[in-house]
Write a structure and sequence with these properties.
Helices cover 4% and strands 6% of the residues. It has 248 residues and is largely without helices or strands. It has a domain of 37 residues. The strands form 2 sheets. It has a 3-stranded antiparallel sheet, with no helix packed on it. The chain has a two-stranded antiparallel sheet with strand order 4-5.
């Protein structure tokens, strides 16, 4: 892989398509948008571990972790490290960005245009949706690999699986069985309506579709569920789309 200098900035040439990418010394890899090659940046060698500042132990009684640099002499779990600068937040500020926690914009951010999500772990400069993080190793698949299992996406068997006998679906966090079962076997958020054991619909209130959960139709006075990927229910989808087009 060759490099060139543009305005004093080292550029790495992708071996797949020749596209020039910024060689960012602060990340471990750069992903070419054109052909999805993963390139290592050209930069100075990593610092010698012996030159790093010696870590001090957490002073919380009985804790054997190292104290976070900066802030109080405790590990992150016991209140150490720099705190998020967002008013009222007590979480730890993420390194590699503004002094905020991940929820308030701290840490490394995705470098894709108009994206403000956190960059995926592992040194990638992109979020999972834009190619960052581990990818599924199934032939021809480029989805994000799920944590807690082989390097595969949920569709191809990655992540935690449902523990119900004979079921191989993805386990959902929360629910009646904790994080050990799929939605059909009690995993995931459940409807908050008294006596209802159905799964709560994604988005909106914590209820199933029958009890008002999920996205609702945007048509005035209509309480039906919105069609998947649309703003209106099946009845108002055509008329709603038409009225919006006319108003534009």
């Amino acid at each position: 892989m060759s490099t060139t200098m543009v305005a004093g900035i080292p550029m790495a040439e992708c071996p797949g398509c020749g596209h020039n990418m910024l060689s960012n010394f602060e990340v471990l890899q750069t992903l070419c948008d054109d052909c999805m090659w993963v390139m290592r940046p050209i930069g100075p060698p990593p610092p010698d571990p012996q030159d790093r500042q010696e870590l001090k132990p957490c002073e919380f009684e009985g804790c054997d972790k190292n104290a976070c640099p900066g802030g109080l002499p405790f590990c992150a779990m016991h209140g150490g490290g720099r705190k998020c600068d967002f008013k009222g937040c007590t979480k730890i500020a993420r390194a590699g960005g503004p002094p905020f926690c991940k929820a308030h914009g701290g840490g490394r951010r995705c470098q894709a245009a108009d994206c403000s999500k956190s960059a995926a772990s592992g040194g990638s400069p992109f979020c999972a949706a834009h190619g960052g993080g581990r990818r599924c190793e199934h032939n021809g698949c480029n989805r994000s690999a799920r944590a807690g299992g082989p390097s595969l996406c949920a569709t191809h068997g990655g992540g935690r699986r449902c523990e119900h006998d004979g079921c191989n679906k993805s386990a959902r966090a929360g629910g009646l069985g904790g994080a050990n079962f799929c939605a059909a076997h009690g995993g995931g958020r459940r409807c908050a309506s008294n006596g209802c054991r159905k799964s709560a619909a994604s988005g909106g209130l914590p209820y199933c579709i029958a009890h008002g959960g999920g996205r609702r139709c945007a048509s005035e006075k209509c309480q039906k569920s919105a069609t998947s990927g649309r703003k209106f229910c099946a009845t108002h989808d055509l008329s709603g789309s038409s009225s919006e087009s006319e108003s534009d």
